[in-house]
Amino acid sequence: MRKMQLVCKLFLFALLVSCGSDPVEIPQGAYENGVLIINEGAFGANDGEVFHFDKNTAELEANVFENVNGRPFAGLLQDLISYEDYTYLVANTGKVEVVQSADFISVGAINNDLVNTRSMVKADDKLYISDWGPYDENWSNTESFVAVVEDITGGNIAYKIPTPSRPEGITFIGDRILVACQMGAIAVIEVGDDEVEKTIAITGTPFFFFEYQGSNYLYAKDSEKIYLHKLNVATFEVEESLEFSVDNSIYNGNFSVSNSGELFVISNQATEDVVVKLSLATESVENENFYSGSNFYGLGYDDNTQTLYIGEHNGWQGNGSVMRVNAQGELIDEVSVGRGPSGFYFP
Amino acid sequence: MSLIACLVFIFAGWQSEPDSSIVSPQDTLVLSQVEVHAASLRKYAFGQYVRTLDKGRLAQLSGYSLGEVLQQETGLFLRQYGPGMLASLSMRGTSAGHNALFWNGLPVNSPSLGQADYSIFPVGGFDAVNIHYGSSGALYGTDAIGGSVHLSSDLKFNTGNELKIGTLLGSFGRWHQQVSYQQGNEKLAFKTNLYRNYTANNFTYKDYASPGTPEKRQDHARVSQIGLVQNFAYSINAVQTLKANLWVNSNERQIQPLLGSSTNDVQEDRSIRAVIDYTHTGENLTWTASTGISNDAMVFNSDRNETRLILLGTALDYAFSQKWQTLAGIRYSHIKGQLATYNRQEQRIELYQATNFRPSQNLGISMQLRQLIHDGEAVPFTPSLGVEWTFFESTEWNWQLISNLSRSFKIPTLNDRFWVPGGNPNLKPEKSLSKEIGLTAKANLSAFSIENRLTYFHMNVDDWILWLPQSTYWQAENVRNVVNQGLEYFFKGGFAQGKNLWTIHVDYSLNSAVNQSGDVGNALSQGKQLPYVPKHKIRTQGNLQNGPYKLYIQNQWTGERYVTTDNQTQLAGYSLWDTGFTYAYDWKGKLKGNLGFHTNNIFNVDYQVLRLRSMPGRNFQFNLNVVL
């Protein structure tokens, strides 16, 4: 009987503590710190995967999705986007896998009617997914769309919003969805109406939206230059365009910006690949050859440790590797990862 | 369909005749053309193994593709992209382009791709399959680095009339139909064969790309194939023969998507092949003159690629004595490619010579030499030397030691050299140096007969071509160096117990294919096994025959395969069991044929030959052949 009373008291005490106003410390999940490495995978093999790198111990966990879920990711991993509880793995082979951010356990997917999926954004408790749509016989994408899914853990597509060709990066500003369409335009979608309200012509091929010091920018490029278009927050027209002379830059989600406005981009040159460092603050190319090598494919910048991560595809003949480079452009170490490391996410 | 089913069961009740494997009581052994073809393949190949697949078994597999037959019936490994989809052969750990495929002596590897898709060669297009294990470039020319496969037609004189109707019905919408008619007197023989193969391929599979791995039904893997084969032979006189073979084949298929993809690709392959052979057979001299054409068109979605090969050749085979025989020949090839991004024509001339020396009854030595001139430039000179020594022979036992040393080569494909962008006209031929040594033992011990063959091979393949990414496109380069070595073991055993004949066949191959070069800076690949080359594959078949009845069970075990060049990911091995029953019937000599019921993948094993390429589970087939 005494034991029973003790148990009841302990239960009551636990209940009081849990109902108190003190914040409850929830331990971070295994994948909510460190570095998530996006390995795109090879065409025709669908072997995209996420690797996890522990910055403190330099330990690498391979094939996180398959390890946790007991099945392969089975797609080409184009983008990884995380919103608190859920992380979205966007495959350009036509699906989005939804996993819990803490432990990567699969909770759902969107894999019906997606074709060539590029990126996504969450807005108004819905998912907006950019998709190139099918190729026609001239290898054009004339039926591109943004797919809308009304359940943030996946499920069927509720409806599709037709867009200009090849929608790529997508963001949510105010009450509008902005879509960077590779044919040289921003498509503006009003959330709720969910149709393209207007399109805005852009210099260069637009790819990706980012925020810096409270302003919204669009990253675009052509074979000779990189353009950073500053957008008017009300009209979304281009307010100002910064131009940087960088030949043959590539974009695979490999764009990386630091908190202090330093941008790193990959430039394919005749005999080597070079990481070029740009500065938003000085609006100039700060270092034409920050780091050079071969087979560069992805970049990520970790502000906490001021470390640049460079993904190498190793000629696509096998798995790739990742180099860590410090702020002075010196190699820290190199680790073998998955196929085609194209980007990095720092939770 | 119901009519066919009725016919099937009516025919099933008819009487039987002994099947072809039962020995003929004739005193004189008459070789068919196929056997003659196999003998000619072996004649200058001392020290190497040329294997003929069982013809009776092939008849049961009518409607299968060559890829399915080799995967199921041999220790060779084929990279299958799904049932009925692309199937490429790997022999002795080499790549798909390092094996030569011939139909009636005509090379049929695609000149643009440098390899053959073994899934689009249906068994209906030929009567026999011979497999030459090991490097044989000096005998056959380009591509034969790992080995070669020879398909041939069988047409005999003095056969009278014969009408053969065959059908095969199977799971997943498989339906094969074949009608052939042949007529032969002492001067003239011809055979016409029409076939149609269809499979809906609507098998169920686990969709590992979706949460919960739901079971789904394949809905985009339909294969439809139709073809005509016309063989003709004319005996001009006692020493001269003229033969002609024509094969028209059309293959349409939906390309089965990779798990996780929802592609809707379609592919059509249409080919026309024709060969004319003239043979003059004297007392000591055989003169042959051949010409042939192989025209292939492949349409992938809307992209059309077409290649044409025209061949002219002549050879003299002369026996100086029982000890010395020699063969000398010349071959001219004209190749034309009209591909999606380029047009190209080129010429090749090959001179070859082979000599057999038999200093004694128990020792045979053969030497082959070949020089190919490719668009005016000589490719590496290709010699080969083989020895076969019977070091112990008694009434019951025969022991042989065999050895071979040979060079081989592969001319870079048209795509490797001219595809826009990335084709590299400066590519060198891939080349190999191969050594092998083996032991064979044959025994006939009253009711038992056994045959063992064990071969160790070592091969160095250099200037292996890979497509590597450059600044804006991929380009073909001579970069890889690979050392392949391993073992091949073949066992045949037979035991007669009254009317029961028990036989067992075992094929085992051990293939180590190690990348020495690391593929230009990719150190992770150096010293690693090549992807999709299983180190082990064992195929075992046991048969019990009693008169016209035959029961078989077979197993195919394929070991782990690495998925990437750095060996960090591997695909699990798998073991498949098949069984079947066949019955050869004969109804008063007026109607004969055979029927069979087969179950493949008895234990419904969920397996993938290549990663994320679904394969079917348990399936059933019924086949019926009627001869009138």
Task: Tell me briefly what this model is.
The complex is a heterodimer of chains A (347) and B (628). Chain A is mainly β and 347 residues long.
Keywords:
heterodimer, A: mainly beta, 4-stranded antiparallel β-sheet, 2 helices, 7% helix, 49% strand, globular, B: 628 residues, mainly beta, 22-stranded antiparallel barrel, 5-stranded mixed β-sheet, 6 helices, 57% strand, disordered N terminus
Oligomer: heterodimer
Shape of chain A: globular
Distance between the termini of chain B: 22 Å
Give the N-terminus to C-terminus distance of chain A in angstroms.
50 Å
3D shape of chain B: globular
* Strand residues, percent of chain B: over 45%
Reported for the largest beta sheet of chain B, the result is: 22 strands, antiparallel, barrel
Most extensive contact: A-B, 41 and 32 residues
Task: Outline the low-pLDDT stretches of chain A.
Answer: 1-23
Please state the average pLDDT score of chain A: 88
Low-confidence stretches of chain B: 1-31
Structural class per helix/strand content of chain A? mainly beta
Question: How many β strands of chain B by DSSP?
Answer: 34
State the secondary-structure class of chain B: mainly beta
Q: Mean pLDDT of chain B, nearest integer?
A: 89
| Radius of gyration of chain A, CA atoms, in whole angstroms | 22 Å
Percent helix among the residues of chain A? under 10%
Biggest pleated sheet of chain A: 5 strands, antiparallel
Number of helices of chain B: 6
DSSP strand tally of chain A? 29
What's the total helix number of chain A?
2
What features would you describe in this structure?
The complex is a heterodimer of chains A (347) and B (628). Chain A has 347 residues and is mainly beta. Chain A has helices at 2-19, 64-69, and strands at residues 35-39, 49-53, 60-61, 77-83, 86-91, 95-100, 106-110, 117-123, 126-131, 145-149, 159-162, 167-173, 176-181, 185-190, 196-201, 205-212, 215-221, 225-231, 238-245, 249-250, 256-257, 262-268, 273-279, 284-293, 296-302, 307-312, 321-325, 331-336, 341-345. In chain A, the strands form 7 sheets. In chain A, strands 20, 21, 22, 23 and 24 form a 5-stranded antiparallel sheet that branches. In chain A, strands 3-2-1-29 form a 4-stranded antiparallel sheet. In chain A, a hairpin with a 4-residue loop joins strand 21 (256-257) and strand 22. The termini of chain A are far apart. Chain B is mainly beta. Chain B is built from 6 helices and 34 strands. In chain B, the strands form 5 sheets. Chain B has a 22-stranded antiparallel beta barrel. A 5-stranded mixed sheet of chain B has the order 1-6-7-4-5, with helices on one face. In chain B, strands 2-3 form a two-stranded antiparallel sheet. The chains are: A mainly beta (347), B mainly beta (628). The A-B interface holds A 44-47, 62-63, 71-75, 91, 93-95, 97, 106-109, 111, 114-115, 137, 154, 248, 268-270, 294-295, 313-319, 321, 336, 339 and B 208-211, 213, 258-262, 301-302, 466, 468-469, 471-472, 519-522, 524-525, 528, 563-566, 568-569, 611-612.
